[in-house]
Write a structure and sequence with these properties.
This protein is an alpha+beta fold. 55% of the residues lie in helices and 9% in strands. It has a five-stranded mixed β-sheet, with helices on both faces.
Length: 253
């Protein structure tokens, strides 16, 4: 065998080995993900704190309010974020009563639940799956309540999220099919991509970054876009009120 042929054979063996290692590595990743879901699904459920499930005006999947309202708020949030939980369990309800129920504000929740843990994303998927049956906001409330309260606060295993869903008046077979098969996994990626684009496009983003109130190129939760302006963090109701009233005045409403 010539040296040239020997070199070709050696390179072919190396490429074959590399392909096998890549395939093996991919299988290990898939196995690790599958193991995570198996372990998560078999964890004890623990105590569940049930909130008062308040109806949302003109609820439609992950939105509420009149789509033609003069002020639109997009909330980029994370179900494992305590500041998001603080907003969801306090200020959000004030906004519903003062502005959403009165037809002045249209509100949309978008999850960017990949930051803190895999459970963030799974909680978001559970909420979206409940949304298929008109129960997004009810699941949203249960998740955030159990983030903030109870001995098992912040624990969102698959088994626990399924137990949350069982507290709602929904078809569990449909929910399990959606949740188990990851129907909304791609939706989370889309939300994440939209968040980076939308937030950096707000009219006051550069000013907030310059003032050290928002990280350049980053995404903090919760973040709110109110008619094109960025509001960072779980601000008090009065901050939202001032921003909404300014937006309403600008639209002549």
């Amino acid at each position: 065998m010539s040296k040239r042929q020997e070199l070709r054979d050696r390179r072919a063996r190396q490429k074959k080995m590399q392909r096998m290692m890549l395939i093996g590595g991919g299988l290990l990743v898939v196995a690790a993900i599958a193991l995570f879901f198996i372990i998560s699904a078999n964890q004890p459920v623990g105590e569940i704190v049930m909130p008062e499930l308040k109806p949302r005006p003109q609820a439609n999947f992950n939105t509420m309010g009149d789509p033609n309202a003069p002020v639109k708020i997009i909330n980029y949030s994370d179900f494992k974020c305590s500041y998001c939980g603080r907003f969801a369990t306090t200020t959000e309800h004030q906004l519903v009563e003062a502005y959403i129920a009165t037809g002045k504000v249209y509100f949309e929740y978008r999850s960017v639940g990949q930051f803190l843990s895999p459970e963030s994303a799974r909680a978001a998927e559970a909420a979206y799956c409940a949304g298929d049956q008109g129960k997004f906001w009810e699941m949203h409330d249960i998740i955030f309540t159990n983030l903030m309260e109870g001995p098992n606060r912040g624990q969102f295993t698959d088994a626990r999220l399924i137990a949350f869903a069982e507290k709602l008046d929904i078809d569990m077979g449909t929910f399990r099919d959606c949740f188990t098969n990851g129907k909304y996994a791609s939706r989370l990626i889309e939300d994440q991509q939209n968040a980076a684009r939308d937030i950096t496009s707000t009219t006051n983003y550069a000013d907030l970054v310059a003032a050290g109130q928002y990280s350049s190129g980053g995404l903090s939760t919760p973040s709110f876009i109110i008619n094109g302006r960025l509001i960072p963090g779980a601000m008090p109701f009065e901050v939202f009120q001032q921003e909404i009233e300014t937006a309403l005045a600008a639209t002549g409403k």
